[in-house]
Write a structure and sequence with these properties.
Layout (H helix, E strand, L loop, with lengths): L9 E4 L15 E4 L18 H7 L24
Antiparallel strand pairs: 1-2
């Protein structure tokens, strides 16, 4: 996949699949990129969660909230069943 320079929290790529690989191939792989990679400094007036939501999300600021991927969902382009 080309142009993986998007500011998203997940990046995807298609690895080389050898015809001699004995294992079932994973056609699309992914890795998470945390949001703090894209925020150089804390801007003034950044919105904040209320205390209960902050504990639930693990951060006070929604801009730094990063969901964990669900391992039970298919990755886009994955043809493995």
């Amino acid at each position: 996949m080309k142009g993986n320079h998007e500011f998203t929290q997940f990046k995807y790529w298609e690895p080389y699949i050898s015809p001699y690989d004995p294992c079932k191939p994973i056609r699309v792989k992914s890795y998470p990129t945390p949001p703090q990679l894209y925020i150089n400094f804390q801007p003034p007036g950044l919105p904040q969660y209320n205390p209960e939501d902050a504990l639930f999300h693990g951060t006070l600021w929604p801009a730094l909230s990063s969901p964990w991927p669900n391992p039970n969902t298919k990755v886009r382009g994955d043809t493995n069943e």
